[in-house]
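One thing: can you check what follows?
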Amino acid sequence: MLTPEIEPQPGAIKPETAFKDLDNHETEQSHFLVCGLGSLGQFCVAALKEFGVSVHAITTACPESWEITNLPSLLDSLLLGDCRQPDVLEKAGVKNCRAVLIVTSDERVNIEAAFAVKLLNPGARVVVRSAKQNLNQLLEQGLGNFVALEASQLPAPAFAIAALGSEIRGLIQLGDYLLRVVKVPIDTTHRWCDRRSLHELNTQTRRLLSHIRAGSPLPVGFYQWEPDARIQAGDQIAYIEVLDQFTDLMAASPTVTPFKARSEARPFWRKVRYLSGYHVGQKLMNWWQVTAQQPTRRVATVVGVTMLALWLIGTLIFKLTNPPISLLLALYTAGVMLLGSYDTVFGALNPQDSFPVWMRIMNLIYMLAGTASIAVLYALLTETLLVAKFQLPKKRPPVPQQGHVVLIGLGRVGRRVAAFLQQMRQPLVGVSNVPLESTILPSMPLVVGELATSLSKVNLTTARSVVIATDDEMANLELGLMAHTVNPDCALVIRTFDPRFSASIDRLLPYAKVLCAYELAADAFVATVFGENVLSLLRLNEQTVLVIEYRIESEDTLNGWLLAEVAYGYGVVPVLYHSLAKGLMRLMPSDDTYLEVGDRLVLLATIDGLQRIERGEMLPRRWQVAINKALSKDSIFDGSTAIARITGCSINQARQLMNQLPAVLPIPLYKHQAQRLIRELSKLQVVAQLVSLPA
C-alpha cells in the first residue's frame, strides 16, 4: 500500500497551506474531491473549477509536466497518496465532500476507493471510472448515490459522427425515439432560403439550435438568433429533429429530403410515393451496401430470390402452354424441374407428346440452377454446423471497395467507435497492429499489421473518412498526414490527449477534426457529479453539448417554472418532457408547460447552461410587451388567455390588463418569449409591440 507523503513535488501546492482548517472552512455544497490526476482527472478538475467550487485532489505522484498547464493553481489542495487509504481520504476532507470523482486508470483501485469513500461519507455522491457494466449496475443498486461511467463510451459517438463527414452532428436515442442534430449550409436552392423566418423552423418535431450568418463568429450558446430574421443564402442552420429509426439515417441529405417524424401523419400520396419503384430501389441499394461486409448473406439471398423467380416463371409458362392442367400441377411441375427430375416432369405432363426444343432447353437450365442452389444450400448448412460444433471463428468479411470508414486503432475508444458505426450500418474497416479475438467485432473487416504499411490495404483512395484513434498522439498525427496525402477528399478525424497539442493540430491542419477524448468525457463526468444523468454528448459549433436527464425534486432549481423560463433563462433546449402524474410524454414540448415535482425532463445543455442550473442563476429578463389595442371583444378575451398561458401570470391579471388598453405588460420577459407572445396576439387581432427594458 502507498502511504501519504507531504514532501513538496513539482507543480504541487505547498503542504503547509494545502490542508489548513480543511474540515472547518469547507462546506458540503462546495467541496469536491478528485482521485487520480491523469488526463481525465485533470480535465475534470478544470471543468469543476468553471462552476466556482472548491476542488481538492489525491494522486499517487505528480507528473513531470501537466497537460493543463495551470492545473496546480486550480486546486485548493493536492495530497500525494493512495486514495484507497482511509487516513488519506480523511486528510483530504472526504467527510465534508459533496461528491467524489474517482478516475484513476486502474478500475480495481477505483472500486476499492469508492468503498472506502462510502464508509467514511455514506451521503457523498461517488462517480467512478469503470467499464465493468454488470458490476457497475450491482454497485449502483447496493451503494446508493453511486454512478459508474466509461471514459471511452461517452466520446465514441462524437468520433463516429465526425467520421461520417456529413451534416449530422449527433444522434440521441430516447427510448423508442431517435433524435438527430443537424447543421446545414443554406444556398439559393434550399427550400428555406428567403421563404422562412427562423421561428417558423420550430415545430412539434423540430427545434432550432443555432443560426450563423456568413462571416459571423460561432455562437457560444443557444437562442442567439433573432426569431423574425429571414433565412438567407450563406447562412448555417443547426437544429434537432425526431426521426423514425437508424435504417434511413444516411439515405438522403437532410437538406433535400427531411425524415418523417413519428408523430407526423402520412397522407395517401406519400404512401403511394413510399411504395414507388424509386423508394424500393433506394431500399435495395441500402440493403446491398449494408450487406457488403456479409457476403454469405448476400449469396443466400440472391440464390433464394433467383430460385423463387424461376419457380414462378416456370409455373406461368406451364400454365400458358398447357391450359388444361391445374395451377397446383403447374407449381408442382416447375418445382420438380428445379430439383432435376427430367423424366418425372415430362411424364407428368404427357409422356406421348413431343416437346419442343425450347422446353427441353428450359428444363436443362432449371436442372443446372437447381443443382447449383442445392450446392449453395449444403455449403451454408455445412458452415453453420461446423461453426456450431467446433466453435470455429468465422472468416471476417473483405475490405469494402468504396464509401467506407477507415478506423485506425482498436483500443477501447476505437472499439466503441466501430460498434457505433456498425449500429448506424456504415461500412468500415478496422486497422490494428495487434490481432483481435474473433469474438470482437466479428462482422468488421480487419487489417492487422504495422499501421503505416496497412494503409495500402484498406482502399484508402476511395474511403469516405479516416478515424485515427490510437493511444499515441504523434502516431495519430503522422498517420493523419499520410492519409490526407493519399486521399485529400476524405474526412479526417484525429484523437488527441494534450489540449495544447490539439490546438496546434487544429490550426495547422484545418481540414482535420481534432477531438480530445478525455476532454469530451470530462464534461459528462462533471455533470454527473452534480447529480445529473448524462445520456450522451455531441459536438456543435466547437462546443460540447450534453444530453442531460433531470428528475424534478421539491428543492430543484427547475421546480415550478414554465418551460420557457427554464429554456431561455438557463440557455438550454428541452427535447423531452414526461409527467408521471399526468401520464403524459412529449417530444419537443411546448414552452407553456409547467414543471412539477416528479416530472422528467431531457434537455441539451452546454457546460455554461449546466452551471447556471446548478447555481439557480437565470439570465436577466430585458423585454416587455406593450399592448396597443384589441380589434374586437373576442380579442380581449382570447388575448387574456394567451397572455396568461405564455407569461405564467394569473388570468385575472391578464384580463385586467386587456380591459385597460393601451398598457404595458408589467412582467419582464425573455426576448424569444416576448416575441412569441406578440405573434400569438397578432393572430387574435391584438396589436402589440416589443419594448426593451433599460440595462
Summary: The two ends are 59 Å apart (CA to CA).
